[in-house]
C-alpha cells in the first residue's frame, strides 16, 4: 500500500459523507413519519458503519 490517492477517491470517505448527509437532513427539517424515523436512522448509521469498515479493509491505496 505504497501508492496514495486523493481523499475524495476513497470509498470509505464517500460512504461516511453519505451517512453524514443523511443524518444532517433531519437537522434541517427533512423528516420521515415518526414511526419510520428510528428505523431509518438506525439503518443508515448501521449500513454506513458496515460499508465504511469494509471499504477500509479492502483498500489497496493510502489516502493522502
- Number of DSSP helical runs: 2
Helix content: 55-70%
Q: Radius of gyration over alpha carbons? A: 15 Å
Strands, total number: 2
Strand order of the largest sheet: 1-2
Number of domains: 1
Q: Uncertain runs with pLDDT below 50, 5 residues or more? A: none
Structure at a glance:
This protein is mainly alpha-helical and 64 residues long. It has 2 helices and 2 strands; from the N terminus they run βααβ.
Question: Can you walk through the features of this model?
Answer:
This protein has 64 residues and is mostly helical. Helices cover 64% and strands 6% of the residues. It has one domain (4-63). It is built from two helices and two strands. Strands 1-2 form a two-stranded parallel sheet. It is elongated. The termini are close together.
